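Lay summary. Proteins are chains of building blocks that fold into shapes, and those shapes determine what they do. In this project we predict the shape from the chain. Here is one chain we studied, written as its sequence of building blocks.
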Amino acid sequence: MAAPRPTSRKFLGVLSLPERNFLTDALRTETVGGVLLLAAAIGALIWANTPLSGGYESVRNFRAGPSALGLDLSLEHWASEGLLAVFFFVAGIELKRELVAGELRDPRTAALPVIAALSGMALPALVYVLVSGVGGGSLGGWAVPTATDIAFALAVLAVLGTSLPSALRAFLLTLAVVDDLFAILIIAVFFTGDLNFAALGGAFAGLAVFWILLKKNVRGWYVYVPLGLVVWGLMYNSGVHATIAGVAMGLMLRCVRHPDERRSPGERIEHLVRPVSAGLAVPLFALLAAGVPVSGGALGAVFTRPETLGVVLGLVVGKAIGVFGGTWLAARFTRAELNEDLAWPDVFAVAVLAGIGFTVSLLIGELAFSSDPVLTDEVKAAVLTGSVVAAVLSGILLKLRVRRYRALCENEERDEDLDGIPDIYEQDDPGYHLRMAALYEAKAAEHRRLAEHAGATREERGGPA
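And here is the predicted shape, written in a compact code that computers can read:
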């Protein structure tokens, strides 16, 4: 007897209802945060390119913090090391949730976004190395164009008013989560300075205490917030980038619900911290990091200097080819099948959208060229330029299919029986068709009753029946 063929998996198919609800809540916050991020970046550029630019530099370079603890930092430094630790803490929770309850829990399902994310990071790095190497530039910025900024990408979608189906949005979000994981690894491995093993040991001891308290179900922000600050300070003084502390603590949180819980600790804390990350921490980082002088000469340098040209081409060309190529190869050589309601140009549009690299790209640019402030500002300008080009191109591609997307979204939202559950999730329910038939019969009876009542009223008035 022949062995049964393995069933194919639907790529970009309809999400499960819990996944869809989580995605809706997550993207609502990310979209609002992305609009704030966009506004902060524009504000920083305006501030840095007006007669008030001196004030901008004074604010950015203002130093604060206890020098005895090695934390006498500029506000710009506080933003990149401190505020982004909150961002990476949320990223750690997202990653943990995806690993234990989301798209990454099943290796077969996870293969496609992981391959897409890996190729979407490898190709931009390769493009940068080729362009910068041929032009005789520094290869130190190879990691700058590898990151995708999900908040900025969703802000672009919000501004354009494009209604992406939930499956495409989920693919973009999962792609960004995996992207964040490898960006974290890049920062930890390639941008760690001389290690202070005493401080590093203290940070690991603090993380161990954090883990034990979680296992003991100890509750109270007054316990975890001071402990988190101590771990962050020790991690910063160890020579490892302090944002790694945020990721580590996020990964330790439990993201699976117990039977007596409405939400797991990870979901509960993410719900509380995500607005702080998306609405405060990341926009403030953008305000202090994105203010670079923009002039005709500076913009010309973006396309003539090998390092900056490598960043632009890495984001615009490398990301699009990498994400799309990796996705196509993974679908070609696995049992995954593309949702029949979507087409490969839709995947390519999302791949181009992934070329919006902002928050993490700016951070890596600062780390890669910290010894050359002029080149750092030029690389930041290149990140902004590449992100804008990717946003415009993806917006055009998505607009070409906007009517189809709206139809798909309307189908996903339709709830004919008004039970609070979209009908698309009830079509496999044996009682679904009986309930729908009863609903339609009730509606028909109501129409007949109204018609009979209208006829009786006309007769009473002496009109034609």
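What the prediction tells us: Residues 427 and 433 are 8 Å apart (CA to CA).
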